[in-house]
Design brief:
4 helices
Length: 327
Amino acid sequence: MAEKVKKKAVRKKADAVKTVQTDEAELKAAEEAVLDENDKLTTAQLVIEMVRKVVFCAALGAFAYAATGLAIYGWDYYSIQREYEQVEKEGGVVISTETKPVNQNTGESEPEETVTDAQGEVIVINPVNKETVPKIQFSVDEEYFKSVNSDYVCYLYIPGSNNDTTIKYPVVLGEDNEHYLRYTYRNTESMAGSICFDYRTNREDPLGSFSSVIWGHDRKDGSMFGALLNYKNEEYFREYPYVYIYMGGNIYVYEMFSFCQHPANGYIFSPYASYDMVMETINSLNWYDTNVEVTEEDRLLTLYTCTEDATERYIVNAILRDVYAAN
């Protein structure tokens, strides 16, 4: 009997030990599970933190890049604006919108004058299109401009509604159409570039062909040919239609009659463009009805600039209305 009680006690003790061992094993397993979960949570947190830092650094880099770009663009605009203001002053550019004075003795306008070009040839304007236009007073020291840059050809002035929309720049003629995309009149490297004739223009008589082409960048600040975008508005187009060019002591007056958009890779408008090709394009694309009759004897001026679409260009066409001596 005593032996049975002893064995029973031993079994109970063994069961108790086994239970304790099982509890310890379960507890250990639970602890290990918690540690594994903590490790997983820590890893996830590390990944999240890493991603957050990467995103922050990327955003900071993008901001720094954008800020640097804006600073460069701002400085480029400021320095080039100062440069052109300086050459305008040093070049003795004086523009008065007051029309040429009448004869003080008779009280009548001066009689029509005969004007010659640099070669001494009389400049003839198709009498069908010649009409009375505002003859502003306009003077330029061309010798100064030629001394600064031998590629200088003429000085362009397009009146606008205010100083920001007025276009007035020296115009150059380079050996190609690439150099002056990134260099100013003073040959300063700049995104603004220059106002430039198409390089195929006749250097001896830049405005003598049926079609003369001048191009410039559409700057978002409105400088260079940025102000040409105002002519997308028909009311503005009709209110400020005149283009003045000072060249060789004469002032050429053009009147705008067409505004259109044309593929950038099109070569319709060039110094060697044919009358039929140019007029067919203008008549099919012109935004406005101006009822201007253009003949093969006329002289056209095409102003060419960028659009929001890199594959397109804005084009303003003007017809020569008059030429008169500056003095």
